Amino acid sequence: MSPGFIFATGIENSIPTIDNGRVRMDEMEKCGHYKYWRTDFDLVQELGLKVLRYGPPLHKTWLEPKRYDWEFADLALNDLRQRNIASIVDLCHFGVPDWIGNFQNPDFPELFAEYAGTFARRYPWLQLYTPINEMSICALFSALYGWWNEQMTTDRGFVTATKNLVKANILAMHAILQVRPDALFVQSESTEYFHAESPSAIGPAELYNSRRFLSLDLNYGRRVDSEMYEYMMDNGMTREEYHFFLNNNLKHHCIMGNDYYQTNEHYVSADGLTRAAGEIFGYAVITHQYYNRYRLPVMHTETNVCEGPRGDEAVHWLRKEWANVLRVRNNGVPLVGFTWYSLTDQVDWDTALRENNGNVNALGLFDLDRKIRPVGIAYKELVRAWMEVLPTQSVCLQVPIVMPHEFQRHVPPPSGWPFDEDATLAPRTEERE
Q1: How far, in Å, CA of 191 to CA of 326, rounded?
Q2: Cα separations (Å) of 112 from 66, 120, 158, 174, 430?
Q3: So which domain of life are we looking at (predicted)?
Q4: Cα separation of 360 and 347, whole Å?
Q5: Per-residue pLDDT tens for 212-258?
Q6: pLDDT tens, 84-128?
Q7: Is the dihedral of CA 194, 200, 204, 206 positive or negative?
């Protein structure tokens, strides 16, 4: 049966490149998931969770156009299916295979859609997808801040990356729907706010507060603000490209997943420079801003904070975020889920994956020895206490999720089904004509 309110965690699978493409920051490798993936799935069940944000490593799976290595994906996704854990499949998380290059490649959207369609056909029991994670952050860090992938620092590079990422996301959704007409798409996107430090900073702050909506405006087919329209036209987007986004959105299949961290609010100075503001408005206020713009069901798809010297910093943040979730939901917003991201500690996010230092960041529900942290205990208790309460408030707020075991019972498997009891694993690589 459907899990009702969606309590989730995730396996961090970021894969941006740095050092002009010479270094791949593979978080699954850094955090030991390739070695401990079965243990990690055990931990998900230990927490009482039925939903996991998860995706196989794109750069190891997608070898060339129409050529794939499914070995790890087959093992992991079949194991999750047997456990009856629903995956929100995270297909592209901040990076692409070397042969694609980067997000300036104009062929990326169509190529990625082909990959997404092939993926959905191979794993037809999967219903929930985040085709491309945090499109806005990916474009900013890759093409405007110069940190990842193409490492560009131009407005034109940013607009190009944004339109390629969003178009790829939309085309992938269309391709997946050809396989699963009931597919649901959770846009995990960073929700930001920019505070003007002085009256002279109001102009740049307003510009940044318009830009924060750009990826979702395009993805949901909403006409962008006038200053963003001029900005895009001045930096390489054509009218034809813009109208593609207006005419091809799949908003009715979407849940607006939003991510909120202490770093999501910023001070802006008169010269347009920004610095961290910490939590000022908080999750509830900013989520209302995004909900009022798009009027979609909401899921809190990422949050965390580092466990500090007291050992209870993350627990306090969890309780604060959960209070914000309840406030948003009680104010009438259809908020359907919450995620602590990620399951385990992460590595090198203290420098936003810009430096390959091997620094462990105590952000997980479990440490990298797979020992539960205080926030993991608190989250487990929270899930147990609220799991059965929230769905009873309104059956209309339950997402129509088909759990893996329900799909197996009610939908005939396609021919060549790779995971019948008597079948062996599919070959390591596959080429499609």
Answers
A1: 18
A2: 10, 12, 19, 11, 16
A3: Bacteria
A4: 4
A5: 999 999 999 999 999 999 999 999 999 999 999 999 999 999 999 99
A6: 999 999 999 999 999 999 999 999 999 999 999 999 999 999 999
A7: positive
Tokens representing 63?
Answer: 């070898």
Distance CA 202, CA 416 (A): 60
User: What does the H/E/C string look like for the chain?
Assistant: CCCCCEEEEECCCCCCEECCCCEECCHHHHCCHHHHHHHHHHHHHHCCCCEEEECCCHHHHEEECCEEECHHHHHHHHHHHHCCCEEEEEEECCCCCCCCCCCCCCCHHHHHHHHHHHHHHHCCCCCEEEEECCHHHHHHHHHHCCCCCCCCCCHHHHHHHHHHHHHHHHHHHHHHHCCCCCCEEECCEECCEEEECCHHHHHHHHHHHHHCCHHHHHHCCCCCCHHHHHHHHHCCCCHHHHHHHHHCCCHHHEEEEEECCHHHEEEECCCCCEEECCCCCHHHHHHHHHHHHHCCCEEEEECCCCCCCCCCHHHHHHHHHHHHHHHHHHCCCCEEEEEECCCECEECHHHCCCCCCCCEECCCCECCCCCECHHHHHHHHHHHHHCCCHHHHCHHHCCCCCCHHHHHHHCCCCCCCCCCCCCCCCCCEEECC
Q: What is the residue type of 194? A: F
Structure tokens at 93: 């998380």
Contacts of 247 (CB under 8 A, 6+ apart): 221
Residue with tokens 């995620």: 339
- Between CA 385 and CA 363 the distance in angstroms is 23
Number of residues written out for the chain: 433
Amino acid 251 reads K
Residue 225 sits at φ, ψ, to 5 deg, of -65, 155
| 344-373 residue pLDDT tens | 999 999 999 999 999 999 999 999 999 999
Q: Which of 85, 55, 301 is nearest to 187 (CA)?
A: 301
Question: 408 — alpha (psi -120 to 50), left (phi > 0) or beta?
Answer: alpha
Q: Which residues contact 263 (CB under 8 A, 6 or more apart)?
A: 276
